Amino acid sequence: MDLSLKIWRQKNKNEKGSMQDYSIKNIEPDMSFLEMLDVLNQQLISGGEEPVAFDHDCREGICGSCSLVINGAPHGPHKSTTTCQLHMRKFKSGDTIYIEPFRGSAFPIIKDLIVDRSSFDRIQQAGGYVSVNTSGNTVDANATPIPKPNADEAFKSAACIGCGACVAACKNSSAMLFVGAKVSQYAQLPQGKVERTERVKNMVVQMDKEGFGNCTNTGACEAHCPKEISLDNIVKLNREYLNSKIK
Ligand code: SF4
Ligand code: FES
């Protein structure tokens, strides 16, 4: 496949970026999107040019590192697919592909296609965990029976990989699908119930502090989430938050 690429290049967070044109030839349809970018980078390095900076790690859809807006859609136009699992066979030879970083004021651009998503880490650190005694008396997690429907619901929320596509897709840059998934995951489990009141309050306070917007029910987050995290998680987040306020 021969392709034209229009890629956002930006030296650092302080300088202005712009779209730059590249062309690339002989791309195999079975390559992943990131492998196609690897080929482009090899071509740039060989020509003495600076390679395109982009984020990636597992390349198997589980780490949440890859974060490109491809043809206007976070993770590209194919449903339930992370950028690293998107294959070039989904495009046609001769196509022009637009590649940009995730946009959102809480995700400032570091360089080219890499954004700083440490705001998500800080939200997680504010309450996205269960406190356990690790002094040698740790209780085996399986010692606490959990009804199968609860375990299944918790697992669906736990599928969130923290990629941030929900923020990039939302016109308000809302992080409520991400935070909702984390809060709901723990709220379903007996281990998570102990700290549920403080957890939701602290995570929402941190989310607001980071500058994420509020949800106005457009559903773009759910539509672009590669892990099919449902809007129900936002309902659960709101319910947990309200309960914590009443308590
Ligand atoms: S809710 Fe979906 S889009 Fe948002 S961070 Fe989690 S996996 Fe990514
Ligand atoms: S590189 Fe890990 S999810 Fe894409």
Structural overview:
Strand 3 and strand 4 form a beta hairpin. Helix 5 (176-187) packs across helix 9. The model has no long low-confidence stretch (mean pLDDT 96). The protein folds into 2 domains: 3-37 and 52-111, Ubiquitin-like (UB roll), CATH 3.10.20; 118-246, Fumarate Reductase Iron-sulfur Protein, Chain B, domain 2 (Orthogonal Bundle). It contains 9 helices and 7 strands, in the order ββαβββββαααααααα. 36% of the residues are buried. The protein is 36% helix and 12% strand. A 5-stranded mixed beta sheet has the order 2-1-5-3-4. The chain is of the alpha+beta class and 247 residues long. The chain binds iron/sulfur cluster and FE2/S2 (inorganic) cluster (FES).
Which features does this protein show?
alpha+beta; two-stranded antiparallel sheet; Ubiquitin-like (UB roll); 247 residues; 9 helices; 2 domains; Fumarate Reductase Iron-sulfur Protein, Chain B, domain 2; binds FE2/S2 (inorganic) cluster; single chain; five-stranded mixed β-sheet
Radius of gyration: 20 Å
- What's the arrangement of strands in the largest beta sheet? 2-1-5-3-4
Q: How many domains, as an integer?
A: 2
CATH topology name of the largest domain, in short, is Fumarate Reductase Iron-sulfur Protein, Chain B, domain 2
Termini separation comes to: 60 Å
Bound molecules: iron/sulfur cluster, FE2/S2 (inorganic) cluster
Shape: elongated
CATH architectural name of the largest domain: Orthogonal Bundle
* Text of the CATH class of the largest domain: Mainly Alpha
Number of strands: 7
Strand content: 5-15%
Number of helices: 9
Topology as a string of helices (H) and strands (E)? EEHEEEEEHHHHHHHH
